[in-house]
Design goal:
By secondary structure, the chain is mostly helical. It has helices at about 5-25, 30-40, 40-55, 60-70, 75-80, 85-100.
């Protein structure tokens, strides 16, 4: 792919925004499901954002990065959408952790 750096960064930013919007719409997909299938979840995205901000000297709290990903305060999202993980989900998560 032969594109300039500015365009590449803009495209990557657009993809990130679309991914975050997609995850905001898919509240039925639990973070543990994302972790079990893909090895990352909404919390990972927010942690990566916070790490990037820290690396660039941008003031950002964990709560701010989570709200940027979830589209609302994390505690509100959890109360509205997070369900208790099933025994199967927990077992799959433990199994996946041992593969790393």
């Amino acid at each position: 792919m032969d594109i300039d750096e500015k365009t590449r960064v803009e495209l990557e930013a657009a993809v990130y925004r679309r991914l975050v919007e997609h995850l905001r719409q898919r509240t039925d997909v639990q973070n543990i499901d994302l972790m079990n299938l893909a090895g990352f979840c909404r919390n990972c995205l927010s942690n990566w954002m916070k790490e990037a901000a820290d690396a660039r000297g941008v003031a950002m709290t964990r709560e701010m990065s989570r709200e940027a990903v979830y589209g609302m305060p994390y505690d509100v999202w959890r109360a509205k959408y997070q369900r208790e993980a099933s025994a199967e989900q927990k077992a799959a998560f433990e199994k996946a952790q041992h593969r790393q």
